[in-house]
Amino acid sequence: MSVTVFIRYQLDPFKRAQFEEYAKRWLTIIPRCGGRLIGYFMPHEGTNNIAFGLISFESLADYESYRKTLRADFDGVANFNIAEAEKFILAEERTFLRQVVL
Questions:
Q1: Phi and psi dihedrals of 27, rounded to 5?
Q2: pLDDT mean values, one per 10 residues, the chain (102 residues)
Q3: Which of 24, 52, 53, 74 is the most buried (most CB within 10 A)?
Q4: Distance CA 33, CA 71 (A)
């Protein structure tokens, strides 16, 4: 059973551009570390401070392995550090989903 991690970000609405650059960096880091990136999604109309990221894995065990690899990845650590220093992410929630199939 595959699992998709649905990440909901609450952003500082005045720092959306910084978050978008952060998200762009994940586009190469996540696949390199073992995640199947569905994508990052920025606010466009309506609410201006919520963004989403979706990443799939074959199993929760694969997700745990990915997290370990990501924490050892130079670019991944640097991206986390930028987010922490710039404070453009105010809150982050993770939900683990499975696809409904027949």
A1: -60, -25
A2: 95 97 98 97 94 97 96 97 98 96 85
A3: 53
A4: 9
Rounded to whole angstroms, the Cα distance separating 82 from 54 reads 20
**Residue given tokens 């991690």 in the structure block:** 5
Are the C-beta atoms of 8 and 50 separated by less than 8 Å?
yes
- For residue 21, the SS3 value is helix
Spatial strand order in the sheet of 89-97: 36-41, 50-57, 3-11, 89-97
What gap in Å lies between CA 77 and CA 23, rounded to an integer? 14
Residue 50, beta-bridge partner list: 10
C-alpha dist (Å) from residue 45 to 11, 15, 50, 90: 15, 16, 11, 20
Go through the domains of the chain in sequence order and give each one's CATH number: 3-97 (3.30.70.100)
